[in-house]
Automatic annotation (TrEMBL):
UniProt cross-references to Pfam families, sorted A to Z: NAPRTase, NAPRTase_C, NAPRTase_N
Family label: Belongs to the NAPRTase family.
Taxon lineage: Bacteria, Pseudomonadati, Verrucomicrobiota, Verrucomicrobiia, Verrucomicrobiales
One GO-annotated biological process of the protein: NAD+ biosynthetic process via the salvage pathway
Superkingdom of origin organism: Bacteria
The protein, known as: Nicotinate phosphoribosyltransferase
Organism: Brevifollis gellanilyticus
């Protein structure tokens, strides 16, 4: 199924687009921001991901004959065509002309910070909302999960094993991509390997062992077939006996000029079994043989196993990585920040809510990150139309009583970078390997307390004070004019 089409959207995006066209607002310039309100996994940070696939998806942003023919068949409540022919003709000639600014993939990000800023014709910026949220929400969620898992593994390699449990083929490919950004060193997903250049890993399953008369015979046959890829799954029957069988075959491999790469544990008490397996392997002369563990791992279980001094050296993580585990989705949203008035000036817009954290920030937003002594010290969301005053004070998005001044002497960087101008890509996108390196480097600048799994310290990220004051004035004015 081809998903590289503007019909990867919710119907209401198209009904609004038809309304913009009918009311003469289609070409009015607008600015939207894509952001999330709450960190996933009750964690202290998130990892921005998905921009590369956003750019690829936008390459196909054109209403072709098949899409338009389908839209022409949709009925309204009265049984007549839902969309006017003139609107469909307008879509047929529409070309993507928006500007995109984005926080680079692999960057640590925090609530309410725009990951993407879309500026251009109102109709176009509206039509891409659903697809951009679909791509960025999912990949940011999985990249964040992967980063947490990899930090729990304390530098030991993590393999992504989630293809068979992923949310469909497209979800599996995106999950592999995002997991690699977050720090996984390889995937079992061969198509993701071909598509994105991710290293692929894998050996055999229990069915291989069960297809032979004995476990030892199965290991010997596999060693003959794949002498340069021998990690034996040892828990089909008796785990420690399986380790001993791996040692037996490992000695024969060594005689033929090859080496036992390791064993894999997929069930049982992984801490105790890994310690015993390590003892057997070491005593037999295989101190470099890896012990790979799988079996519904996540960052919490890995952290527990590390505390138990488990002798595991490689971690295979599947279901709870590629699905997000305990968190089904990132709650990313897409809100209008400003619209160009008839005089050419920007008119900031705001969405109100009974919940303070759900009141949107107005204006053309940018994120400024402050760094001191190699540590990220805080982020300020400010309006580019008004600038970011110094010294910079920020207000917590959900609690106006919580304020903080950015430290004196800190350097700063504005995180949203130009990607598209007038619909054209104006920068070269980094390789997936470079994005992964950026993620690892970014995490080194966060204080350790922000990265802990349980009750992390809250990173100071908020709305710059003068923007906050304009926001309050807009809220007050809106409430005064509301009947």
């Amino acid at each position: 199924m081809n998903t590289n089409t503007p019909l990867l959207t919710d119907l209401y995006q198209l009904t609004m687009a038809a309304g913009y066209w009918k009311s003469g607002k289609a070409e009015q310039e607008a600015v939207f921001h894509l952001f999330f309100r709450k960190l996933p996994f009750s964690g202290g940070y998130a990892i921005a991901a998905g921009l590369g696939d956003v750019v690829k998806w936008l390459e196909g942003f054109q209403f072709g004959k098949a899409e338009l023919d389908y839209l022409a068949t949709l009925p309204g409540r009265d049984g007549k065509p839902l969309f006017e022919r003139g609107f469909l003709d307008y879509l047929a000639t529409m070309e993507w002309r928006c500007d995109i600014d984005a926080i680079p993939e692999g960057t640590v990000v925090f609530p309410h910070e725009p990951l993407l800023r879309i500026k251009g014709p109102l109709i176009q910026a509206q039509l891409v909302e659903t697809a951009l949220l679909n791509i960025v929400n999912f990949q940011t969620l999985i990249a964040t999960k992967a980063a947490r898992v990899c930090l729990a593994a304390q530098g030991e390699p993590v393999l992504e094993y989630g293809l068979r449990r992923a949310q469909g083929p497209d979800g599996a490919i995106m999950a592999s991509r995002a997991a690699f950004i977050g720090g996984c060193v390889a995937t079992s997903n061969v198509l993701a390997g071909m598509t994105h250049g991710i290293p692929v890993r894998g050996t055999h399953a229990h069915s291989w062992v069960m297809s032979f008369d004995s476990e030892l015979e199965s290991f010997e046959a596999y060693a003959q077939a794949m002498p340069n890829n021998c990690i034996f799954l040892v828990d089909t029957y008796d785990t420690l006996e399986g380790v001993k069988h791996a040692v037996t075959v490992g000695k024969k491999l060594r005689e033929s000029g090859h080496e036992l790469a390791g064993i894999r544990l997929d069930s049982g008490d992984l801490a105790w079994l890994s310690i015993e397996a390590r003892r057997i392997l070491d005593e037999a002369g295989f101190p470099k043989a890896a012990i790979v563990a799988s079996n519904d791992l996540d960052e919490h279980l890995i952290e527990s196993l590390k505390h138990q001094n488990a002798a595991i050296s490689v971690w295979g993580v599947g279901t709870k990585l590629v699905t997000g585990g305990e968190q089904a989705a990132l709650g990313g949203v897409y809100k209008l920040g400003a619209i160009r008035d008839e005089n050419g000036a920007w008119d900031p817009k705001i969405k109100l809510s009974e919940q303070a954290a759900k009141v949107s920030n107005p204006g053309i937003q940018q994120v400024r990150r402050f760094t001191l002594d190699g540590e990220f010290r805080g982020d300020a969301i400010f309006d580019e139309d008004h600038g970011c005053p110094e010294p910079t004070h920020i207000i917590h998005p959900g609690d106006v009583q919580r304020t903080k001044q950015m430290p004196e002497g800190a350097t700063h960087e504005d995180l949203l970078k130009p990607v598209h101008r007038a619909g054209k890509l104006i920068t070269s996108l980094p390789s997936l390997q470079d994005i992964q390196s950026r993620c690892r480097e970014q995490l080194t600048h966060l204080h350790a307390t922000i990265k802990r799994l349980q009750h992390p310290h809250e990173y100071p990220a908020g709305v710059e004070q003068t923007l906050h004051e304009r926001k309050l004035a807009m809220i007050k004015a809106a409430k005064e004019t509301t009947p």
